[in-house]
Amino acid sequence: MSGIVAVAGEALVDLVPAPVGDYFEARPGGSPANVALGLARLGVPARLLARIAEDPMGSRIREHLDRNGVQLDHVVTAREQTSLALVTVGPDGGPSYDFRIDGTADWQWTPEELTGAVDDAVVAVHSGSLALTTPPGAAVLRRLLADAAATATISYDPNCRPLLMGDPADVLAGVHEVLAFADVVKVSAEDLEWLMPGATPDEVLDDWLARGPAIVAVTLGGDGVVAGSANGLRTRRPGVPVQVVDTVGAGDTFSAALLAGLHGRELLGAAKRVQLRALDADALDQLLDLAARAAAITCSRRGADPPTAAELGCTSAHHY
């Protein structure tokens, strides 16, 4: 497959409950880094745009991503420390997060650090989560996405973290700004409960698609996904039954697999925007089913551990 998917945002360390005893394990994480990892495991050239510290945890993040094939040539070596997320997993496998991010590496972007990050080889740029809401770097990354829309498909996942994002009304206003230039949007029902309480997934699809995207998908956990497209398609796909260990990274895996499917169909890049917006019903369902299967595999494993192409039964780009 040709064409790079760049992913911009945080690459932090998740402290997750250990399988035995009352302890935490340190695991590389961060929503954008998880998406880059998921893409690379599916055979898609993935370039991470992140600020990674030189401390021991930052070294662990680099080694993990490099070992899995994520391109790190545009990663900034940061003087600040690595961000930490403390993860608690509930009885249903759903995670809750606490963070240690004051003054850490992920949020200190300057425009100069991103010079040349989105070149002619990049067909899509994905971002979301804390990277687009945490100052001072949020404004820099938002500008990167807006400018990249001239040449690349823009993929977006709000991936809300209420503990850190402030007033949901303010966050929603920011979401609307990104929707104006985004092409592919994934949002969870849990995010929407915080952002737009009382709104149904169908209402959100109508509202958000009218703001500009080609595809919007609302993930419903075990109940599957509701999605729509700019050409009027609406569909609901079932969840994939699985023994849930935890759901950490499941939404990131969904985004990665959805992008991998579009990449395999050669629908990424600004020049393919018309074709993307004309996607037919069968193709949309196949893309959503692929993403749901990938997310289910992640749910069956501890932490953000997305599947490979072989685990999804995909042996070539055409299988996506």
UniProtKB/TrEMBL annotation:
GO terms for molecular function: ATP binding; fructokinase activity. Residues 5-307 form the Carbohydrate kinase PfkB domain. Pfam families: PfkB. Keywords: ATP-binding, Kinase, Nucleotide-binding, Transferase. InterPro entries: Carboh/pur_kinase_PfkB_CS, PfkB_Carbo_kinase, PfkB_dom, Ribo/fructo_kinase, Ribokinase-like. It comes from the Bacteria. Belongs to the carbohydrate kinase PfkB family. This is Fructokinase. The lineage of its organism: Bacteria, Bacillati, Actinomycetota, Actinomycetes, Pseudonocardiales.
